[in-house]
Design a protein that fits this description.
The structure is a single chain. The chain is of the alpha+beta class. Helix 4 (about 130-145) packs across helix 9. The longest helix is centred in the middle third of the chain and has 32 residues, at about 355-385. The termini are far apart.
């Protein structure tokens, strides 16, 4: 019987893990049947939108813009292209083309906005997931909504922003300059940071989240994936979606729906039509249809709440939520309950003091061992795989194998540690101090991270299980099954988070998974202490870890589906007629070595830097042949002094296709004002100190032929100014003769690469 109960317990735990993941994302189109949402229609749109890279300023960008506009017109919507020159502090600008479609509602209340961006990341990403998936979700969602001949109560605006990838500039243009902003009540934003996995709901609000959560639940999404821990962390981070602009600059509430699975595709040339997970697209479709049907007919003026809610995914209920005002009462109750459990257990001889003290030692050893092994082993793996340093977002193609391998390795370590303690202490004894550790964590949470206050739920379930065991006649097998049953919510809540953190934050953060795994494991000790064939289970976890480490090793090579990122650009100083090859790769490969093998490679080139999301410097540089390119013409339109202020106006005319220009300086000086294309930057103070380096970036739209820049500073200053012009056409230029990338390679994401960069001083 013990073998049977052990098997049954393992089965319940395994099924709970499976269901916890399965409940986060649909596995078929069946949930969409009631909406008449056609995934095939959405994919037809996506096939066209993601045919080529369509970053702001590219030729195909205008093709995608016109396609979306025509689709809106075909649905009978009022349409508009908002062409708007926009700047954002500090200090980037471009000429945006936002696409806006409107469905008129039957009332004059606040309007609903469906938001996404249609530009892809420059210069190689096809933008199928980020954010082509958002575009097609909205297009097909609105078509389905209109097919029911439903007249919404609220106006609905479809806003497809431009230039999100270069600084949220389209959203800035819309919020700062469009009259519709004054009447917006809620925004639904669709985004992606990968190409698969569940789509998580994250809110943007300057106030309390109570009413937003209530209405989100009332909308009845089929697969809500959200918890308030993610919300609290998100609020502390420097958020960077279009929705943030609506919240910060117009105090408009909204929901982000974004997926982060298959993070290795993010912003790369692998963000293609074929690689977008169809189930993920179905998940986005379920969100838009449930949200659209709900928020199109309720009053959007009353979504500011006086309460914040703790919320989380929960078995059967889908989502559980309660107000922050419950946090301290629940915590106090739990502490009293915990002390009562200890007192009662000692009084009726269900607990022993020695066993409880052993629990402190076992927990300390477990945390130290699991965290140390995870950190040291991952650093060792990274050391023997130096090319991982060139995967800038930190999630390798075999990352899922690594996550699974580390989870089972940690479980093996935990079994090895606790099986020794089980010889002298019961699982119940050893669980008491871990519960106390959970309570300490909850005290800290109640002060610093209230969104994680649902951590108190498993504590109370475990305490209730102990109380039942005290007053029941359950022996080992039945006690094990009872504890397993009450542990289902614990496993359901936390199992997906073991995967989520390293996927979203990078494999360097596997130690977070180890920490959470220890927390889960120690609350299941009464289950594990009663297992039959414990040594066999322990050995099986080690074998499973070895298998997944082996799979990670076997899948460590690059191929056409798992491409190696590398970078190269040609930088030329036109004044000194000195040119260099530059790369951000830590390690040279077959492609990059051809630029550096005949030269002494200079690590961390300091004479030129360009934008990089993760601050990655140029790590390789070598002399290159100076090749003459036609560079932009610089005209000084005005250089005057008025009231002790020097006003300088420059006109930069391009003679070839340039994607962006930068102004840099070798000096420190103070700017009173700065504008580009006649639009002034909103400098937060009356003056702005410029430090040596880059201080202005302008991305040229496809229609831009010249750029006018105006600077205002003190009359006695004559700062050195340099013009840096960048074109993403290195591989198209006939002036170079180098071997192209192999088919298992791709341009490195998040940095400027495959570019010709020309630099020259501006003579004042």
């Amino acid at each position: 019987m013990k073998n049977f109960f052990t098997f049954l317990s393992i089965l319940i735990i395994s099924l709970t893990v499976y269901v916890s993941f399965n409940d986060l994302i649909p596995s078929s189109e069946k949930p969409l049947d009631k909406y008449d949402f056609s995934i095939e229609n959405a994919l037809d749109h996506l096939r066209i939108i993601s045919k080529k890279p369509h970053y702001t300023g590219s030729e195909y960008h205008s093709v995608v813009r016109d396609y979306i506009l025509n689709e809106l017109k075909n649905m009978g919507l009022e349409t508009e292209i908002q062409n708007q020159m926009v700047t954002r502090f500090c200090c980037v600008g471009t000429n945006t083309s936002n696409i806006i479609g409107t469905i008129k509602g039957s009332s004059n209340g606040k309007s609903l906005v469906l938001l996404t961006h249609y530009d892809s990341r420059h210069h190689a990403s096809f933008g199928a997931s980020d954010a082509g998936s958002g575009v097609v979700t909205i297009l097909e969602g609105v078509r389905s909504f209109l097919s029911k001949n439903t007249i919404p109560i609220n106006d609905i605006h479809l806003v497809f922003t431009d230039a999100e990838e270069i600084g949220l500039l389209g959203a800035q243009a819309f919020v700062k300059n469009h009259s519709l902003v004054d009447n917006i009540g809620l925004v639904l934003n669709f985004e992606a940071r990968g190409s698969g996995g569940p789509s998580y709901m994250l809110m943007e609000t300057n106030g309390k989240n109570g009413d937003l959560i209530s209405e989100f639940i009332n909308a009845e999404p089929g697969f809500p994936a959200a918890n308030s821990l993610m919300y609290s962390i998100y609020k502390m981070l420097p958020n960077d979606t279009d929705l943030t602009v609506f919240r910060e600059q117009a105090n408009i509430n909204g929901f982000n729906f974004a997926f982060i699975g298959d993070h290795f595709d993010y912003h790369t040339s692998l963000d293609t039509f074929d690689r977008l997970d169809r189930n993920t697209l179905i998940h986005q479709a379920d969100y838009i249809m449930s949200m659209l049907n709900h928020f199109s007919k309720i009053n959007l003026s009353n979504l500011d709440s006086e309460n914040d809610y703790v919320y989380l995914n929960f078995p059967i209920l889908k989502m559980l939520h309660y107000p922050y005002s419950w946090i301290y009462p629940l915590l106090i109750f739990s502490i009293i309950f915990f002390l009562f459990i200890i007192y009662l257990g000692l009084a009726i001889n269900k607990l022993s003091i020695q066993g409880i003290l052993n629990g402190i030692l076992a927990l300390t050893i477990s945390l130290f061992t699991c965290l140390s092994i995870t950190i040291i082993l991952w650093k060792t793996i990274s050391y023997f795989n130096p090319d991982y340093a060139d995967i800038l977002h930190g999630f390798t193609y075999n990352g899922y194998y690594y996550i699974t391998a580390f989870i089972f390795l940690n479980i093996f370590c935990l079994f090895s540690i606790y099986y020794r303690f089980f010889k002298n202490s019961s699982g119940l004894d050893l669980t008491i101090m871990p519960i106390g550790f959970w309570l300490i964590i909850n005290v800290l949470i109640s002060i610093y991270l209230k969104g994680a206050a649902y951590f108190i739920i498993p504590v109370n379930l475990v305490l209730f299980s102990i109380l039942l065991i005290y007053f029941s006649n359950f022996k080992g097998n039945k006690k094990m099954l009872l504890w397993t049953f009450f542990s289902v919510p614990l496993i359901y809540i936390f199992a997906p988070q073991l995967k989520m953190f390293p996927v979203g934050l990078g494999l360097d953060n596997l130690f977070i998974t180890s920490f959470f795994l220890v927390l889960i494991f120690v609350l299941l000790l009464p289950v594990f202490s009663n297992f039959a064939f414990r040594n066999q289970i322990k050995n099986l976890t080690l074998l499973t870890a070895i298998v997944f480490f082996a799979l990670a090793f076997l899948n460590n090579d690059y191929d056409v589906n798992s491409k190696k990122p590398n970078s190269i650009l040609y930088y030329s100083d036109l004044d000194s007629k000195q040119s260099y090859w530059l790369s951000r790769n830590e390690n040279l490969d077959q492609f990059t070595s051809q630029f550096f093998q005949k030269n002494d490679s200079i690590q961390e080139a300091s004479f030129f830097s360009s934008s990089s999301k993760y601050g990655t410097p140029h790590k390789q540089s070598a002399l290159a042949d100076f090749i003459k390119f036609s560079s932009s013409d610089i005209q000084i339109l005005k250089d005057t002094i008025v009231e002790n202020k020097r006003n300088l106006q420059l006109k930069i005319s391009t003679e070839r296709k340039i994607n962006k220009i930068d102004l840099t300086t070798d000096d420190s000086f103070v700017l009173n004002s700065m504008s580009v294309q006649g639009v002034e930057f909103e400098i937060e103070k009356s003056e702005f100190k410029i430090n040596p380096g880059q201080f202005l970036t302008y991305y040229l739209s496809y229609e831009d032929k010249d750029v006018t820049i105006e600077l205002d500073f003190e009359e006695n200053l004559s700062p050195s100014l340099n013009l840096i012009e960048t074109s993403f056409d290195l591989f198209e230029s006939e002036k170079f003769n180098f071997k192209p990338r192999e088919d298992y390679m791709m341009p490195m994401p998040f940095v400027n690469t495959d570019a010709i960069v020309l630099s020259k001083k501006i003579k004042l």
